[in-house]
Amino acid sequence: MPDFTASNSPRTLNVDLPVPDEVLNWRVSQFQVLEGLDYPVGLREVSKRTAEDAYEAAEIDSRARAFYNHRFQKFQRWLQPQVHDRDFYPWVAGDIHPDLSAFNLDKEVSGKLARHPGAVLPRAVDEGLFKKVSDYHTVTGDTSPPMSVKEGPLPWYGQFIRGCYMTAVRRLLAKAELSPVYAQVDEGFLNRQHQARFRSFLNNGVVDVDNWHLRTFIKDYYLMLGAAIPDFASFAPDSP
Length: 240
Fold this sequence. Notes:
Layout: E1 13-14, E2 19-20, H1 26-36, E3 41-46, H2 48-57, H3 65-74, E4 78-83, H4 89-92, H5 107-115, H6 117-126, H7 130-140, H8 157-178, H9 192-203, H10 211-228, H11 230-233
Protein backbone atom coordinates (compact mmCIF):
# COMPACT_ATOMS: atom_id res chain seq x y z
CA MET A 1 0.00 0.00 0.00
CA PRO A 2 1.43 3.43 -0.91
CA ASP A 3 2.53 5.61 2.00
CA PHE A 4 0.71 8.93 1.93
CA THR A 5 2.49 10.34 4.99
CA ALA A 6 4.76 13.36 4.75
CA SER A 7 3.54 14.06 1.24
CA ASN A 8 4.18 17.44 -0.33
CA SER A 9 0.90 17.38 -2.26
CA PRO A 10 -2.16 15.16 -2.64
CA ARG A 11 -0.52 13.50 -5.65
CA THR A 12 2.83 12.80 -3.95
CA LEU A 13 3.45 9.32 -2.57
CA ASN A 14 6.37 8.02 -0.55
CA VAL A 15 8.06 4.93 -1.99
CA ASP A 16 9.36 2.51 0.64
CA LEU A 17 11.42 3.70 3.62
CA PRO A 18 13.86 6.62 3.65
CA VAL A 19 17.34 5.78 2.40
CA PRO A 20 20.77 7.14 3.29
CA ASP A 21 22.37 9.53 0.85
CA GLU A 22 24.94 6.94 -0.18
CA VAL A 23 26.61 6.72 -3.56
CA LEU A 24 25.77 3.04 -4.18
CA ASN A 25 22.25 3.02 -2.78
CA TRP A 26 20.16 1.60 -5.61
CA ARG A 27 17.08 3.68 -4.77
CA VAL A 28 19.09 6.90 -4.82
CA SER A 29 20.64 5.95 -8.17
CA GLN A 30 17.27 4.89 -9.60
CA PHE A 31 15.45 8.05 -8.59
CA GLN A 32 18.24 10.40 -9.64
CA VAL A 33 18.33 8.75 -13.06
CA LEU A 34 14.54 8.88 -13.46
CA GLU A 35 14.43 12.50 -12.30
CA GLY A 36 17.13 13.33 -14.86
CA LEU A 37 14.91 11.77 -17.52
CA ASP A 38 11.99 14.00 -16.40
CA TYR A 39 9.93 11.24 -14.81
CA PRO A 40 7.70 12.41 -11.92
CA VAL A 41 9.95 11.37 -9.04
CA GLY A 42 12.13 13.06 -6.46
CA LEU A 43 14.22 12.55 -3.36
CA ARG A 44 13.01 14.69 -0.45
CA GLU A 45 15.50 15.21 2.35
CA VAL A 46 14.19 14.14 5.76
CA SER A 47 15.73 14.37 9.20
CA LYS A 48 17.57 11.40 10.62
CA ARG A 49 14.98 11.28 13.40
CA THR A 50 12.18 11.01 10.84
CA ALA A 51 14.02 8.18 9.09
CA GLU A 52 14.62 6.35 12.38
CA ASP A 53 10.94 6.66 13.28
CA ALA A 54 9.96 5.22 9.89
CA TYR A 55 12.20 2.18 10.39
CA GLU A 56 10.90 1.72 13.92
CA ALA A 57 7.31 1.79 12.69
CA ALA A 58 8.18 -0.73 9.95
CA GLU A 59 9.28 -3.23 12.61
CA ILE A 60 12.55 -4.17 10.91
CA ASP A 61 13.74 -7.69 11.75
CA SER A 62 15.44 -7.51 15.17
CA ARG A 63 18.38 -9.58 13.86
CA ALA A 64 19.17 -6.77 11.41
CA ARG A 65 18.77 -3.96 13.95
CA ALA A 66 22.52 -3.67 14.60
CA PHE A 67 23.13 -3.03 10.91
CA TYR A 68 20.47 -0.34 10.68
CA ASN A 69 21.67 1.28 13.89
CA HIS A 70 25.11 1.46 12.30
CA ARG A 71 23.64 3.15 9.24
CA PHE A 72 22.02 5.79 11.40
CA GLN A 73 25.34 6.42 13.11
CA LYS A 74 27.20 6.61 9.79
CA PHE A 75 24.83 8.66 7.64
CA GLN A 76 23.47 12.03 8.69
CA ARG A 77 21.61 12.80 5.46
CA TRP A 78 18.52 10.73 4.66
CA LEU A 79 16.28 10.90 1.61
CA GLN A 80 12.66 9.89 1.06
CA PRO A 81 12.02 8.54 -2.46
CA GLN A 82 8.74 9.97 -3.76
CA VAL A 83 6.58 9.94 -6.87
CA HIS A 84 4.68 13.07 -7.84
CA ASP A 85 2.08 11.26 -9.93
CA ARG A 86 0.27 8.41 -8.22
CA ASP A 87 -0.28 6.68 -11.57
CA PHE A 88 3.49 6.30 -11.85
CA TYR A 89 3.76 4.57 -8.47
CA PRO A 90 3.42 0.97 -9.78
CA TRP A 91 6.45 1.46 -12.03
CA VAL A 92 8.75 2.05 -9.05
CA ALA A 93 6.94 0.27 -6.21
CA GLY A 94 9.24 -2.75 -6.48
CA ASP A 95 12.66 -3.23 -7.97
CA ILE A 96 14.24 -1.35 -10.87
CA HIS A 97 12.79 -3.98 -13.21
CA PRO A 98 8.98 -3.70 -12.91
CA ASP A 99 6.55 -6.54 -13.54
CA LEU A 100 6.06 -6.57 -17.31
CA SER A 101 3.83 -9.64 -17.49
CA ALA A 102 0.75 -7.52 -18.22
CA PHE A 103 2.32 -6.18 -21.41
CA ASN A 104 2.31 -8.10 -24.65
CA LEU A 105 5.99 -7.61 -25.35
CA ASP A 106 7.93 -9.26 -28.11
CA LYS A 107 9.90 -12.17 -26.61
CA GLU A 108 13.22 -10.76 -27.80
CA VAL A 109 12.49 -7.33 -26.32
CA SER A 110 11.28 -8.85 -23.07
CA GLY A 111 14.45 -10.94 -22.88
CA LYS A 112 16.69 -7.92 -23.46
CA LEU A 113 14.92 -6.01 -20.69
CA ALA A 114 15.20 -8.92 -18.27
CA ARG A 115 18.91 -9.40 -19.04
CA HIS A 116 19.82 -5.73 -18.97
CA PRO A 117 22.56 -4.98 -16.41
CA GLY A 118 20.71 -1.84 -15.36
CA ALA A 119 17.78 -4.00 -14.25
CA VAL A 120 19.80 -6.65 -12.42
CA LEU A 121 23.02 -5.29 -10.97
CA PRO A 122 22.47 -2.00 -9.05
CA ARG A 123 20.38 -3.55 -6.27
CA ALA A 124 22.54 -6.69 -6.16
CA VAL A 125 25.67 -4.57 -5.69
CA ASP A 126 24.08 -2.30 -3.08
CA GLU A 127 22.62 -5.11 -0.99
CA GLY A 128 25.61 -7.42 -1.23
CA LEU A 129 23.83 -10.07 -3.30
CA PHE A 130 27.10 -11.42 -4.66
CA LYS A 131 25.56 -14.67 -5.85
CA LYS A 132 23.11 -12.82 -8.08
CA VAL A 133 26.05 -11.01 -9.67
CA SER A 134 27.93 -14.28 -10.03
CA ASP A 135 24.96 -16.07 -11.61
CA TYR A 136 24.40 -13.14 -13.97
CA HIS A 137 28.04 -13.29 -15.05
CA THR A 138 27.79 -17.05 -15.59
CA VAL A 139 24.81 -16.60 -17.92
CA THR A 140 25.95 -13.51 -19.82
CA GLY A 141 29.73 -13.81 -19.68
CA ASP A 142 31.80 -10.80 -20.70
CA THR A 143 29.79 -10.09 -23.84
CA SER A 144 28.39 -6.60 -24.30
CA PRO A 145 24.83 -6.30 -22.95
CA PRO A 146 21.73 -5.33 -24.91
CA MET A 147 21.52 -1.55 -25.11
CA SER A 148 18.89 0.94 -26.20
CA VAL A 149 21.28 2.39 -28.78
CA LYS A 150 23.36 0.05 -30.92
CA GLU A 151 26.98 0.43 -29.99
CA GLY A 152 30.10 -1.56 -30.63
CA PRO A 153 31.49 -4.05 -28.09
CA LEU A 154 32.29 -2.60 -24.67
CA PRO A 155 35.85 -3.77 -23.96
CA TRP A 156 35.56 -2.87 -20.28
CA TYR A 157 32.31 -4.75 -19.65
CA GLY A 158 33.88 -7.92 -18.25
CA GLN A 159 35.90 -5.83 -15.81
CA PHE A 160 32.70 -3.99 -14.87
CA ILE A 161 30.93 -7.26 -14.00
CA ARG A 162 33.87 -8.42 -11.92
CA GLY A 163 33.91 -5.06 -10.15
CA CYS A 164 30.23 -5.53 -9.32
CA TYR A 165 31.07 -8.90 -7.78
CA MET A 166 33.90 -7.44 -5.71
CA THR A 167 31.74 -4.64 -4.36
CA ALA A 168 28.81 -6.94 -3.61
CA VAL A 169 31.05 -9.29 -1.60
CA ARG A 170 32.62 -6.41 0.32
CA ARG A 171 29.21 -5.00 1.20
CA LEU A 172 27.93 -8.38 2.35
CA LEU A 173 31.00 -8.90 4.54
CA ALA A 174 30.54 -5.45 6.07
CA LYS A 175 26.89 -6.25 6.83
CA ALA A 176 27.76 -9.66 8.24
CA GLU A 177 30.17 -8.09 10.72
CA LEU A 178 27.28 -6.13 12.17
CA SER A 179 24.49 -8.66 11.80
CA PRO A 180 25.06 -12.37 11.05
CA VAL A 181 21.67 -12.61 9.33
CA TYR A 182 23.23 -10.92 6.28
CA ALA A 183 25.72 -13.76 5.85
CA GLN A 184 22.99 -16.13 4.73
CA VAL A 185 19.67 -14.45 3.91
CA ASP A 186 18.58 -15.30 0.37
CA GLU A 187 22.09 -15.63 -0.98
CA GLY A 188 23.44 -18.53 1.07
CA PHE A 189 26.78 -18.56 2.84
CA LEU A 190 29.84 -17.10 1.20
CA ASN A 191 31.27 -20.58 0.51
CA ARG A 192 34.82 -21.54 -0.37
CA GLN A 193 34.21 -21.34 -4.10
CA HIS A 194 33.00 -17.74 -3.85
CA GLN A 195 35.78 -16.85 -1.43
CA ALA A 196 38.33 -18.23 -3.89
CA ARG A 197 36.79 -16.20 -6.70
CA PHE A 198 36.91 -13.07 -4.56
CA ARG A 199 40.60 -13.63 -3.72
CA SER A 200 41.41 -14.34 -7.37
CA PHE A 201 39.82 -11.09 -8.50
CA LEU A 202 41.56 -9.25 -5.67
CA ASN A 203 44.97 -10.70 -6.57
CA ASN A 204 44.44 -9.77 -10.21
CA GLY A 205 43.77 -6.13 -9.39
CA VAL A 206 40.01 -6.04 -9.92
CA VAL A 207 38.72 -2.87 -8.29
CA ASP A 208 35.28 -2.00 -6.95
CA VAL A 209 32.65 -0.99 -9.46
CA ASP A 210 32.31 2.64 -10.45
CA ASN A 211 28.80 3.84 -9.64
CA TRP A 212 28.89 6.06 -12.73
CA HIS A 213 28.76 2.89 -14.82
CA LEU A 214 25.87 1.48 -12.78
CA ARG A 215 23.86 4.66 -13.29
CA THR A 216 24.71 4.70 -17.00
CA PHE A 217 23.14 1.26 -17.33
CA ILE A 218 20.10 2.25 -15.24
CA LYS A 219 19.53 5.15 -17.62
CA ASP A 220 19.93 2.93 -20.66
CA TYR A 221 17.50 0.41 -19.18
CA TYR A 222 14.80 3.04 -18.71
CA LEU A 223 15.36 4.39 -22.22
CA MET A 224 14.89 0.85 -23.53
CA LEU A 225 11.81 0.37 -21.34
CA GLY A 226 10.30 3.61 -22.63
CA ALA A 227 10.92 2.59 -26.23
CA ALA A 228 9.23 -0.77 -25.62
CA ILE A 229 6.28 0.51 -23.59
CA PRO A 230 4.79 3.88 -24.58
CA ASP A 231 2.68 3.87 -21.39
CA PHE A 232 5.89 4.17 -19.38
CA ALA A 233 7.43 6.79 -21.67
CA SER A 234 4.26 8.92 -21.48
CA PHE A 235 5.16 9.94 -17.93
CA ALA A 236 8.20 11.81 -19.29
CA PRO A 237 7.03 13.26 -22.61
CA ASP A 238 10.12 15.47 -22.95
CA SER A 239 12.59 12.69 -22.21
CA PRO A 240 15.11 11.92 -25.01
